[in-house]
UniProtKB/TrEMBL annotation, chain A:
Protein's name according to its UniProt entry: ABC transporter ATP-binding protein
Keyword Zinc (UniProt): no
UniProt xrefs under Pfam families: ABC_tran
Similarity field: Belongs to the ABC transporter superfamily.
Residue ranges of domain ABC transporter in the record: 9-241
Automatic annotation (TrEMBL), chain B:
Record has Transcription regulation as a keyword: no
Chain ranges of the ABC transporter domain: 6-254
Keyword ATP-binding: yes
Protein species of origin: Devosia rhodophyticola
CDD domains the record matches: ABC_Mj1267_LivG_branched
One of the record's GO molecular function terms: ATP binding
Pfam families in the cross-refs: ABC_tran, BCA_ABC_TP_C
SMART domains, per the entry: AAA
Name the record gives this protein: ABC transporter ATP-binding protein
Automatic annotation (TrEMBL), chain D:
Origin organism lineage: Bacteria, Pseudomonadati, Pseudomonadota, Alphaproteobacteria, Hyphomicrobiales
Entry keyword Cell inner membrane: yes
Coarse class of the protein's main subcellular location: membrane
Pfam families xrefs: BPD_transp_2 (PF02653)
Organism of this sequence: Devosia rhodophyticola
Locations listed in the record: Cell membrane
Annotated TM spans: 20-38, 45-65, 71-93, 105-124, 144-169, 190-212, 252-272, 278-297
Keywords: Amino-acid transport, Cell inner membrane, Cell membrane, Membrane, Transmembrane, Transmembrane helix, Transport
Membrane disposition: Multi-pass membrane protein
The protein's name in its UniProt record: Branched-chain amino acid ABC transporter permease
Family listed: Belongs to the binding-protein-dependent transport system permease family. LivHM subfamily.
């Protein structure tokens, strides 16, 4: 279906919900290969549900999700992850009771070649030296910022072709928010394709190439990040008209 | 501004060293529709829980009409005139709509357990009154046709109405609604707006709501208070709030540090 | 209805049939007036002990058919009614009440002592003679209103036999293991009492939990007490495990088992550990010289060898029949009197009764495990 | 035998008993870990393992003899077969109930237990079945202590299985995934872990371990019957709770502790062996009162 060769992810009129509650009301969006897109909107606008629908945790009730041109709407979550579409959920979800290293190892669950796993582990440790230092400790005993690094590092162990990041700065002190966003920036610059959900709309639009603003399960606005940044009407998506 | 009905001063709440509410001052006037908004994790539901007695704040005071509520148990708070609904609909299973709503009236029941067991005439009279009142509440929210159905079999929007009717059956002076529009479609939202307006206008009950749908909040509220990280950062009319830089920053993020990127 | 017409003309059969047909209403309304005598059989035909119960019922029926073939009792043919006690006291009460109200002249049976005890009062109230063929707990004796007769040796007789055997074989100290149920505990307590009264010691007296697989605690206790012999008073399934584990742990002394363990299955479970084990047993057919033709007839009729209590059940039926003949009528009191005075030579030996209606002479035999089966030791 | 001798003898006995408890408790705890189900049918899986081991041994005995070689082969084959049975039970009985209320799935487990028990009851007429293994009576006599070769082989095999399991769980991706699933299923799916497959592997391993215990118990004690899983099922549950339900090292520790407690408890003067079960269940209640999370279990605190 994809007309442009560089489109890695495409949503066509996707609807989804929880029981009788409708969360997504027909979402169309696109992420280009190598680019960073961001998904903005107030609480309850449907950002997290959009990411979950893409990664298969929530089943779309209608529409289509295409990843690298293939329909993954009905593909099981673990199979989607296997294909390289990696979702870092909100709240970090570090596996308590498993060491930092084991958390990272599990990130590479789908990677069968031990040499590749070792190489990726070294890369992650290079990116986050603190994880190397604390690799044998329980992952859940890391600080909030370190846990976020672990969550991202674990996703990188897959060798992701598309990274979905859900509120990576949530619950972090202001200084750590900036640090986390710097990491996201570095990943993007290194060529990773990213779809970012972020509470801090200003920072997200500064980093991203393209932005979508959700409201009540609809896409209310979309455009170049720079254009959206300059548009004051984005405030209305958050604070009403 | 009208007389203050609910007045919070200096309310602080913390769990295991984490501050959830930090010295919050907050007023809801008599006969007002007010809203409490703020980003995720700002402490809105915690504030509701403090008002209704589910949480005990470490310091401060919470008064309704000058009566201190801080030391009261939740059912006493209800008797003092405050009713609430919950973020997720919480109806009693395997009870009809009417029974659910009647359960709301029992906090006003005067007959004791003994007369209830003995089925004394006073108790029977009271039961009939409760029933009549519950039906009246259901009629008010517009679902009296469904009063004999199992409450949990109703459409979601109607379940929300049952919850509101149950809250009304306690004959409150102040109604707290926690995200009443969550999961409703746009038509149902409009109906909800009308209902909230009628509750205030016809029943003379003040309403305070927490709501994420800021569009709806702006339409209905006369006063809006904004909570961010446990701190009350703004208070005012909808237009003032929309233009308040502190509120915009709370919702869209700060500009500090942007240059580092 | 039995159709045996031996010694009866075609005419008579027809007359009887006509009689039965014309009095059908009377039969339905009043107590039935068959021209035959009914005998009750009280045994478990369902539940865990069903095999033994069915076996006893078969043996009684075999005796009945032999009696009928020889002309019946007092000129009348016998038939049987089975009451299933399920080896359960409550079920036994129901079964006994049903038998007592179904016009039987006497009852043969009683396998589980626990289930038999509560039936004594029911049969006693009805004045029915009751020949108890297998159940042999001493608890039956005080509960007997006077019309029940035990033709299996009681626990007391087994104890006497065991003490006699142990003493004769130079044993001084004896460990006793039971399972805490009425039967095995009774036997263990009585043995302990008699053994100590005879001037010997019981250095270990243990109780095993039923269904337990691991007996290591008991084995250790026994090994540390190091008795000359171990006496297991409960059933074979768990006894087999204990014997095996005792030998596995290196215990060298003598091992003996009570009549609850005299099944050939013991050898399958304990394996070679059961070689040389001594068993006290009520007289089973294979060890009774007089039972040779009984075994053949039984096997021919039912396609399998008679079980351990079949000879006693068979004897019980024959005894009851002879008592009715002696009494000369089906009057219960007369039959009971005849039983009290009985001196009957059965497959399992001579039957005469003590004033308590128990067997006057012990019929226990001593068996020994050899080559994977029981053989007569004496 | 002196008190000293009894102590060592009971130590050995406790280890043997504890090995059985631990092997069965492992399955209990692993299955609880991944699907939060108290698999009350687990004791009956042990029982079925015993019967399958017996059947296989009866076929093999004419060729390899009824000794340890035959038992070892029977055990391995029974483990594989019962492993698949565990997966099959999970698929048809538990998988459809995964989102049902906790009570419903518990009742399902009881139903599975009854089906297995009554199935074997019908096939065997409730009779004790002699296992038919011939393991000999040899052993090492240290004077104060007699340890049979059978006890050594048995404890050794149980230890080897447990070490193997520990290595599998701590060193392999599947083992890590198993632990991860007990913590956060959705996160596991996002990491590409096929949760359903890992649950199946867990049931396979848990059931196979129970089958190993069942076969060894049958061979060691000499007889099997349809009800033999009941008591050990409850004991294994007790062991799992003592160690901390959900914890694999906890189940091993709990099993050994329970075995030793029972062995020594019965030797306290005045407490005969008939008090054994009372003793172990009192310990269960004590643990539940004093340390409800068990010895190695982690408390799952509610997060605000």
């Amino acid at each position: 279906m994809s007309t442009e060769a560089e489109t890695i992810l495409q949503l066509e009129n996707v609807t989804a919900g929880y029981g009788r509650i409708i969360a997504l009301n027909g979402i169309d969006l696109k992420v280009e290969q190598g680019a960073m897109a961001t998904l903005l909107g107030a609480n309850g606008a449907g950002k997290t549900t959009t990411l979950k629908t893409i990664s298969g945790l929530v089943r779309a009730t209608g529409g289509k999700v295409l990843f690298e041109g293939e329909d993954i709407t009905q593909t099981p979550a673990h199979e989607i992850a296997r294909r390289g579409l990696v979702h870092v959920p909100e709240g970090r979800h570090v596996l308590r009771g498993l060491s930092v290293r084991e958390n990272l190892e599990l990130g590479a669950f789908t990677v069968k070649d031990p040499a590749t796993r070792r190489k990726r582990m070294d890369e992650v440790f290079g990116l986050f030296p603190v994880l190397a230092k604390r690799q044998h400790g329980d992952g859940s005993l890391l600080s909030g910022g370190e846990q976020q690094m672990l969550a991202i590092g674990r996703a990188l162990m897959h060798g992701p072709r598309l990274l979905l990041l859900d509120e990576p700065s949530m619950g972090l002190a202001p200084k750590l928010v900036i640090e986390t966003m710097q990491i996201v920036k570095r990943l993007s610059e290194a060529g990773t394709t990213i779809l970012l959900v972020e509470q801090n709309a200003r920072l997200a639009l500064k980093l991203a190439d393209y932005g979508y603003v959700l409201e009540g399960g609809h896409i209310r606005m979309q455009g170049d990040a720079a254009t959206l940044r300059a548009d004051n009407s984005i405030v209305q998506a958050y604070l009403g008209e | 501004m009208s007389n203050p009905l609910l007045k919070l001063s200096g309310v602080s709440l913390s769990f295991a060293g984490n501050t959830v509410l930090d010295n919050v001052d907050f007023v809801v006037g008599e006969g007002v529709i007010a809203s409490l908004i703020g980003p995720n994790g700002a402490g809105k539901t915690s504030l509701f829980n403090c008002i209704t007695g589910f949480y005990k704040p470490q310091s401060g005071s919470i008064k309704i009409d000058g009566h201190e509520l801080m030391k009261l148990k939740p059912h006493r708070v209800t008797q003092a005139g405050i009713a609430r609904t919950f973020q997720n609909v919480r109806l009693f299973h395997q009870m009809t709509v009417l029974e659910n709503v009647m359960s709301g009236s029992h906090c006003r029941s005067k007959a004791g357990a003994i007369s209830a067991i003995l089925g004394l005439p006073s108790q029977r009279r009271e039961e009939a009154e409760i029933r009549a009142h519950a039906i009246e509440c259901l009629r008010f929210v517009g679902i009296s046709d469904e009063m004999d159905r199992d409450a949990t079999n109703l459409a979601y929007g109607h379940q929300r109405r049952v919850e509101i009717a149950r809250a009304l059956a306690t004959r409150p002076r102040l109604l707290l609604l926690d995200e009443p529009a969550a999961g409703l479609n746009s038509g149902e939202k409009q109906d909800l707006l009308d209902l909230i307006g009628r509750i205030r206008d016809e029943l003379d009950i003040s309403v305070l709501l927490i709501e994420h749908d800021t569009g709806m909040v702006m339409k209905i509220s006369e006063r809006i208070s904004v909570l961010d990280h446990g701190v009350m950062i703004a208070e005012g009319a909808p237009k003032e709030i929309q233009a308040n830089p502190k509120v915009i920053e709370a919702y869209l993020g700060q500009e500090d540090g942007e240059d580092l990127l | 209805m039995p159709t045996a017409t031996t010694g009866m003309g075609e005419n008579l059969t027809m007359k009887i049939t006509a009689f039965l047909a014309t009095t059908a209403i009377a039969v339905a309304l009043a107590a039935p007036a068959y021209a035959e005598m009914k005998i009750g059989i009280l045994v478990p035909t369902t539940g865990s002990e069903a095999t033994y119960g069915q076996d006893m019922a078969n043996a009684v029926d075999l005796a009945i058919s032999e009696i009928n073939a020889a002309g019946g009792v007092l000129g009348e043919q016998l038939s049987s009614v089975v009451g299933d006690d399920g080896c359960d006291p409550q079920q036994a009460v129901n079964a006994a009440s049903k038998l007592a109200s179904s016009d039987v002249v006497g009852v043969v049976g009683g396998y589980c002592s626990g289930a038999t005890v509560p039936t004594l009062k029911i049969f006693g109230d009805a004045g029915l003679p009751f020949v108890i063929a297998a159940a042999n707990s001493t608890k039956l004796i005080p509960a007997n209103p006077g019309d029940a007769f035990m033709i299996n040796s009681t626990g007391n007789d087994q104890v006497a036999k065991a003490v006699e055997y142990f003493s004769a074989n130079g044993i001084k100290s004896l460990a006793i293991v039971n399972q805490g149920d009425a039967y095995s505990q009774d036997l263990a307590d009585l043995t302990k009492k008699a053994w100590e009264a005879a001037g010997n010691t019981v250095p270990a007296f243990e109780v095993a939990n039923k269904g337990e697989q691991d007996y290591s605690a008991i084995v250790t206790a026994i090994r540390s007490a190091n008795p000359d012999a171990v006496f297991w008073t409960a059933y074979y399934a768990d006894g087999g495990l204990l014997i095996r584990q005792l030998r596995q742990a290196g215990y060298q002394g003598k091992i003996a088992v009570g009549d609850g363990s005299n099944s050939p299955e013991l050898f399958n479970i304990a394996g070679s550990a059961a070689e040389g084990v001594v068993g006290f047993s009520n007289p089973t057919a294979e060890f009774l010289p007089a039972a040779k033709s009984f075994i053949e007839d039984y096997s021919a009729a039912y396609g399998s060898a008679p079980g351990p209590y079949a000879p006693l059940a068979y004897d019980g039926m024959k005894l009851l029949a002879s008592a009715i003949e002696t009494a000369g009528s089906t009057d219960s009191a007369a039959i009971v009197d005849a039983l009290k005075a009985a001196d009957y030579q059965g497959l399992a030996g001579e039957i005469t009764f003590t004033p308590e209606n128990t067997l006057a002479r012990s019929n226990f035999v001593v068996l020994q495990g050899a080559g994977g089966k029981w053989t007569l030791a004496e | 035998m002196s008190v000293f001798d009894i102590f060592f003898q009971q130590l050995v006995n406790g280890l043997v008993l504890g090995s059985f408890y631990a092997l069965v408790a492992l399955g209990y705890t692993m299955i609880f870990g991944v699907v939060k189900l108290l698999n009350f049918a687990h004791g009956d899986i042990y029982m079925v393992g015993g019967f399958l081991g017996f059947l296989i041994l009866s076929v093999l005995a004419p060729y390899v003899g009824p000794g340890w070689t035959g038992v070892a082969i029977s055990m391995v084959v029974a483990m594989i077969a019962v492993g698949f049975l565990g997966v099959f039970i999970q698929r048809i009985a538990y998988q459809p109930m995964l989102n049902a209320p906790r009570l419903s799935i518990l009742i399902t487990a009881l139903a599975v237990s009854l089906v297995l028990q009554n199935g074997v009851l019908t096939l065997t007429n409730g009779q004790y079945q002699p296992f038919g293994a011939d393991l000999g009576f040899g052993g090492v006599n240290l004077g104060f202590l007699f340890i049979s070769y059978n006890q050594m082989i048995l404890v050794g095999t149980a230890a080897a299985l447990m070490i193997g399991l520990e290595l599998f769980v701590s060193r392999t991706q599947y083992g890590r995934a198993m632990r991860a699933i007990s913590i956060d299923k959705d996160m596991c799916r996002l990491m590409g872990i096929n949760v359903t497959a890992v649950i199946a592997v867990t049931f396979f391993i848990g059931s196979a371990l129970a089958a190993a215990a069942g076969t060894m118990a049958g061979a060691y004690y000499g007889s099997i019957w349809y009800f033999m899983g009941f008591l050990i099922g409850i004991k294994a549950f007790t062991a799992a709770v003592i160690g901390g339900i959900g914890s694999i090292p906890g189940a091993m520790l709990g099993g050994l502790i329970l075995g030793l407690l029972e062995a020594f408890g019965t030797q306290i003067p005045g407490i005969g062996s008939e008090w054994k079960d009372v003793f172990s269940f009192s310990v269960l209640i004590l643990v539940l009162v004093l340390k409800p999370t068990g010895l190695l279990g982690k408390s799952e605190q509610e997060r605000m």
